[in-house]
Amino acid sequence: MQGVTVYNEKIEKVLSNINKVMIGKEEVATLSLVALLAQGHVLLEDVPGVGKTMLVRTLAKSLDCDFRRIQFTPDLLPSDVTGISIYNPKELEFEFRPGPILGNIILADEINRTSPKTQSSLLEGMEEKSVTVDGKTLPLSKPFFVMATQNPIEYEGTYPLPEAQLDRFIIKLKMGYPSFTDELEMLDRTSRNHPIDTIAAVMSRDELSNVQDEVKKVYIDKNVQHYIINLVSNTRANSSIYLGVSPRGSIALMQAAKAYAYVCGRDYVLPDDVKFLAPYVLSHRIILTSEARYDGLESEQVVASIVKNTHIPIRKDFNR
To answer: Do 218 and 256 contact (CB within 8 A), yes or no?
Structure first.
């Protein structure tokens, strides 16, 4: 596929920009870009101060996209997200003032700090690429990408996201603290000027839209599709899982695998792509049984076990 060759250099430059700002977070940078190219959204869960906001800002700046930030607080209203119509006495009519969701790359910061009603105001935009205000449906800008951050649910004053909301995120990530060496380099780089001040756009919005269209054309063999379905089916039959992955999860894993193959410079998906992405795409889509939680199991551990015990297609199985 010609597009892989045409845009691969620019994709590398985007990742290079992110890695200049985010020291030692190459995998997080790659997975964030994968989600964007797959036209999905990312949920970043971690403690404050590890660089979640800086990651989104760098991504938006590298792609020359309109960046909007929504700081979720307990008193935030749905209209603060979508926009509101305000009466203009001079014009004797209502004027619509768009909310921050009408941008390209949206940072939904600390999304679990606000009420479920306000959290749900993102649902329509994330799924339908449109919002409804005063009975009118407004299309969102293209490209449209939400990166939501949340504090760990153990933090006081948080509202856990409902399953329907979690299912809208194609990938869930945790950044973690940097290593000693990475943190030392971070101090060196920020001692005078912050690295983000030196970042320039390396891909236009139109080019990004073209890449997203190219990702859809990436080839995936039937046997790899069977592998995806087997992984998802095994989450529904696992004794540690109360609620398994929905069909939306199967589609999300396939889309993410296509985008990851594209980022790797290929026009076809390998089973290893699916194997690598499965924990990031599936773990937040399952609900463990109370017994599993009591035993201290986490979703990522259960999914990793399922991946380990699911047969991987080998080369002779492929039709291509």
So the answer is: no
Q: Are residues 253 and 200 in the same domain?
A: no
pLDDT, tens digit, 9 for 90 and up, residues 68-112: 888 888 888 888 888 777 777 777 777 778 878 888 888 888 888
Say how far apart CA 164 and CA 126 lie, in whole Å.
12
The CATH number of the domain where 10 resides is what?
A: 3.40.50.300
DSSP 8-state class, residue 25: -
Specify the pLDDT at position 154. 53
Contact of 116 with 159, CB cutoff 8 Å:
yes
Round to whole Å and give the CA distance between 236 and 245.
7
pTM for the whole structure: 0.88
Of the candidates 305, 232, 315, which has an alpha carbon nearest to the alpha carbon of residue 272? 315
> What does the alpha-carbon distance between residue 191 and residue 148 come to, in Å, rounded to a whole number?
29
Tell me the CB-side half-sphere exposure of residue 155, using CA atoms within 13 A.
15
Can you read off the two tokens belonging to residue 70?
């929504």
Q: What range does the domain containing 277 cover?
A: 218-317
* Whether residues 162 and 45 fall in one domain: yes
Do β-strands 42-45 and 171-173 pair in parallel, antiparallel, or remain unpaired? parallel
Q: Are residues 281 and 299 in contact, defined by beta-carbon separation less than 8 angstroms?
A: no
Residue 255 burial (10 A CB sphere; 0-12, 13-18, 19+): buried
Closest CA to 137 of 108, 96, 103, 107: 96
- Angle between helix axes 247-263 and 2-21 (nearest 10 degrees) is 90
Same domain, 51 and 170: yes
Q: 300: phi > 0 → left, psi -120 to 50 → alpha, else beta; which?
A: alpha
